[in-house]
């Protein structure tokens, strides 16, 4: 199985090279910051950083482009920032809400899997790793639906709060993100990295003992079995 390594920042799919090429609606999207940047706990924030991946949980916004719910369906996916030249207006009427992630490790922590269309190769790698870790899909249920059902139970509860679990930090595989106080921390290349919307900073003092793990347990088990998430280039 091919393991991913690092991801370099890319431009927002909705933003062409020059603002002058945009119509009035897209230009508004170009200069505005919406509450659609996602942290490893799955919480939405309004910050300028776009990250390297886009995500989809369904229609989460109203006609004022305000997010009013955590998700619209169970198949939470991560998408490429550009695909076949398609253009979108952010939070269009009747369209899914575009979410943005720093990198794949962040998206997995928030509970998103690769999209089967715009990230087909990565989707195939991930689903192969899932089968090797968790076995075949439930009878009568396609593999993507089996994955989405398992991930949904492991990422958000009925009160729409983030699901976490405790574990010894030394037992966690690379690519896992855990919480240490108010910090989100990535385990990568034998080191601990402080997460931020613009990238990572190395923590020279490692956390020890039991921690609250943000990456859903089924995903951690996939990581432990050899699948490695792509991580932002700042973690080097």
List keywords for this structure.
globular; 236 residues; six-stranded antiparallel sheet; 5 helices; four-stranded mixed sheet; alpha+beta
Distance, first to last CA:
22 Å
Radius of gyration: 17 Å
Number of helices: 5
- The percentage helix is 10-25%
SSE arrangement, N to C: EHEEEEEHEHHEEEEEEHE
Unreliable stretches? 1-28
What gross morphology would you assign? Answer: globular
Strand content bin: 15-25%
Q: What composes the largest sheet?
A: 6 strands, antiparallel
**How many domains?**
2
Care to give the gist of this entry?
This protein is α+β, with helices and mostly antiparallel strands and 236 residues long. It has helices at 24-31, 104-110, 120-134, 143-155, 217-224; strands spanning 6-7, 37-38, 44-45, 53-56, 77-79, 99-101, 113-114, 165-168, 177-180, 183-188, 191-196, 199-203, 210-213, 231-232.
């Amino acid at each position: 199985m091919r393991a991913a390594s690092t991801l370099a920042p890319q431009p927002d799919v909705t933003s062409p090279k020059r603002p002058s090429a945009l119509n009035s609606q897209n230009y508004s999207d170009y200069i505005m910051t919406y509450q659609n940047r996602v942290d490893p706990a799955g919480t939405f924030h309004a910050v300028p950083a776009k990250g390297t991946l886009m995500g989809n949980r369904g229609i989460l916004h109203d006609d004022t482009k305000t997010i009013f719910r955590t998700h619209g369906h169970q198949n939470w996916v991560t998408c490429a920032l550009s695909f076949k030249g398609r253009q979108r207006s952010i939070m269009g009427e009747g369209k899914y809400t575009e979410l943005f992630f720093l990198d794949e490790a962040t998206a997995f922590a928030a509970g998103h899997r690769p999209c089967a269309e715009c990230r087909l190769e990565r989707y195939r790698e991930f689903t192969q790793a899932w089968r090797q870790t968790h076995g075949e899909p439930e009878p009568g249920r396609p593999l993507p639906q089996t994955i989405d059902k398992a991930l949904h139970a492991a990422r958000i509860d009925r009160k729409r709060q983030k699901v976490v679990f405790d574990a010894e930090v030394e037992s966690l595989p690379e690519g896992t993100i855990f919480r240490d106080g108010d910090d989100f921390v990535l385990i990568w290349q034998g080191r601990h990295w402080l997460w931020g919307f613009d990238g990572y900073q190395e923590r020279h003092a490692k956390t020890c003992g039991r921690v609250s793990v943000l990456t859903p347990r089924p995903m951690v088990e996939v990581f432990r079995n050899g699948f490695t998430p792509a991580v932002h280039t700042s973690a080097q």
